[in-house]
Write a structure and sequence with these properties.
By secondary structure, this protein is an alpha/beta fold. It contains twelve helices and 13 strands.
Length: 339
């Protein structure tokens, strides 16, 4: 235990705070992940968000009484005497302010979804972390679901197209895909890789369909389910076969990647990859406001203040698919079941 990394949590208003602490602090748990332990936590919370204010007391009591976590009164206290930080606050509005304090403390941090409540704040967080050389990363747990990895690794060549569907519950004060639509969106990008140029969106009360065009003439479609029956699946259309996701997963593989990141300071998902995913969701929001008009990711990233080096392609060039092999598809993904 003396060699375990000491972890501080910001935000006890989400079930992730309980589930992550369970896997890190309980050696008897079958999903236990060695190498790190939660030692301090700042509850935080959002009084105007029902999902936050009604659950924070229970999660705080659990991590304190069951797992021995010290509860503190500020972000700064949660960053003191720890080696790394889990930023788990339920919603995105407080994130920029919280990240400024974490970055000032110089702690590597995993940012749970959503990174922030606007693309502008997401960009600013990554700019501040980069300038301070503080290691950061963010991802959805679905990126490491065995079933998603099986689809992503189905062929050596990039997917010609893919369809991903999943729940997209709306949280006030956020672009409507940021809070829960991030999960099927990240599954789509896990299979398609980077290189999305533009999106167009059709929206009804029940669902939104976002069609993304990738460089090289590839296409990825997101079906964001707002109402009705809920479920997750990603389907890959390749050169030789069509592959459907058959199994799901849980938080354990992602948390294993988080601990590895805290140990090595090397994020498994780069800032540019994550920014493209958030630009996809922000462009979808803009397309909805423009009655389904196609919106480029470059446009929304420029408006958010992203540096030139981070901007996606403008879509004017049309390289061959072979020249656009996404690293995440070819060799950047673990194999299903990899430890």
């Amino acid at each position: 235990m003396a060699d375990d990394l000491r972890i501080g949590i910001i935000g006890l208003d989400t079930s992730h705070s309980e589930q992550f602490t369970l896997r890190l602090n309980d050696p008897a748990n079958p999903n236990h992940i060695p190498g790190a332990r939660v030692v301090a936590a700042f509850p935080g919370g959002s009084p105007d968000i029902e999902e936050s204010k009604t659950r924070i007391e229970g999660f705080t009591a659990t991590v304190r009484d069951k797992f021995g976590v010290r509860i503190v009164g500020t972000v700064a206290e949660a960053c003191k005497d720890v080696d790394a930080v889990l930023l788990l606050s339920l919603e995105g509005r407080p994130r920029l302010g919280q990240m400024k304090e974490i970055i000032a403390a110089g702690k590597p941090v995993f940012m749970d979804k959503p990174v922030a409540a606007s693309l502008k704040d997401v960009v600013e967080i990554y700019k501040l972390a980069g300038a301070a050389q503080v290691p950061v990363f963010s991802a959805s747990a679905v990126r490491w679901y065995p079933g998603v990895l099986e689809v992503a690794n189905a062929e050596q060549t990039p997917a010609r197209s893919a369809i991903s569907y999943g729940p997209a519950h709306v949280l006030p004060h956020h672009p409507d895909l940021f809070f829960y639509g991030i999960h099927p969106t990240e599954a789509l990008f896990t299979v398609m890789g980077t290189g999305c140029v533009s999106v167009a969106r059709t929206t009804t009360a029940s669902a939104s369909v976002v069609t993304g065009l990738w460089a090289g003439g590839r296409m990825g479609t997101l079906e964001a389910i707002h109402e009705g029956a809920m479920g997750y699946k990603v389907i890959r259309f390749g050169d030789k076969q069509i592959t459907e996701q058959k199994t799901d997963g849980d938080y354990t593989p992602m948390l294993r990647e988080i601990v590895k990141f805290f140990q090595t300071k090397q994020p498994p998902v780069s800032p540019k990859q994550t920014l493209e995913i958030y630009a996809f969701m922000a462009a979808a929001e803009e397309s909805k406001l423009r009655d389904g008009a196609r919106v480029t990711l470059r446009e929304v990233m420029e408006k958010a203040g992203a540096p030139e080096a981070w901007l996606p392609e403008d879509g004017k060039d049309k390289p061959k698919v072979e020249e656009e092999v996404p690293k995440s598809v070819e060799k950047g993904l673990p194999k299903p079941g990899a430890s």
